[in-house]
Amino acid sequence: MDAVFDDEEQQRAREDAVTEQVVASFETSTDPRYEQVMSSLVRHLHGFIRDVRLTPGEWDAAIAFLTRAGQITDENRQEFILLSDVLGASMMTVGVNSPPRSDATESTVFGPFFVHNAPLIGLGDDIGEGMAGRPCYVHGRVTGTDGSGLAGARVEVWAADEAGFYDVQYEGHALAGRAHMFTDENGRFDFWTVQPAAYPIPYDGPVGDLLRAAERSPMRPAHIHFMVVAEGYVTLITHIFVAGDQYLDSDAVFGVKPSLITEFIEHEPGEAPRGHVVDSTWSEAVFDIVLAPER
Ligand code: BEZ
Ligand code: FE
C-alpha cells in the first residue's frame, strides 16, 4: 500500500518538475509582462492536461484541430477568432477590459465582419439601399456618464441583412449595411438600414465540428454592431440585439447582455422619419449610448 502512495507522490513530483522547468525557462525574458503571461499560461495549460489526464490520442486530435483551423484561415476567414468566440474567451477578454462602471453602455464581442474604411454618411442617410429586408430607422444620443451630449463622436455601424448575411459574405460584394457618421452638436445620430436577422457563425470548419460534438447551435440572435469613438472617452464596441429574438438565450458566442436588448418597434407603411415614405411596414430602434470617461 505504502509503495502505491510513494509512486503517486513521485508521479506528482515529476509532473510538478516539468511545469517548474518550463516556467523557469521564461524567466530570462527582459519583459516582465511577457514573463507573467507565459508563466500563467504554462501553469494553466499543464494544470488542464493533468486535470483531465490528457491521452496521447486526445493530444493528437487537438493538434489536428489546430492544424485545420490554421489551414482554413485566410484574409476573409479567421477560425482562431471563431474558436475564441465559441469558448467564451472573447467575451471574457471584453469583460476584464470593460470599465468597471454600471452607468456606461456595456460592450460585447467585435466579431469578424468589421471592415476598415466603411463609408462616411450624413446623419439620417440610408445604408440599407440594395439590401434585402424591412426598412429600419435607428437613432439615439451619445452622452458621457454625466449626461452631456457628445458632439462629433464617431459612430460606426455594421449589420447583416434579412437573410443573415453581411455584405462581405456575398460573392463580388459591394459595401452595404455599414458606415460611419458623426454625432451632431447634441450628440444625436440617426440612420436608415434594414432590420437585421439572426444568423449562424461560419460552421463549415473545425469550430463547426466542435459545436456539433456538443450539439450546440451556431446561431447568433439578430443584432446591429456599433463602435463609438469620442476623445477623452473609452471606445465602446457593442451591439444592440433585437428584443424577442429566439436565440437571445443561446448566442453561440455568449455576447448577449440584457441591457443591450432593444425593442424594434414596428410601424405601419407611410410617412417615416427623414422624409421617407415607406410602402411596407418599417421598424424603429432607439439606442442611447453612454461612454465612460478615460481614466
Ligand atoms: C458577429 O457578430 O459578427 C460575429 C461574432 C462572433 C463570431 C461570428 C460573428
Ligand atoms: Fe454580427
Oligomer: single chain
CATH architectural group of the largest domain: Sandwich
What is the CA-atom radius of gyration, in angstroms?
A: 24 Å
Q: Tally of extended strands?
A: 14
Q: Can you characterise this structure?
A:
This protein has 295 residues and is an alpha+beta fold. 29% of the residues lie in helices and 22% in strands. The model has no long low-confidence stretch (mean pLDDT 95). The chain binds benzoic acid and fe (iii) ion (FE). Benzoic acid (BEZ) is lined by residues 82, 85, 109, 111-113, 201, 220, 253. Residues 111, 113, 223, 225 line the site of fe (iii) ion.
Q: Keywords for this structure?
A:
single chain, 295 residues, alpha+beta, 6 helices, 22% strand, binds benzoic acid, binds fe (iii) ion
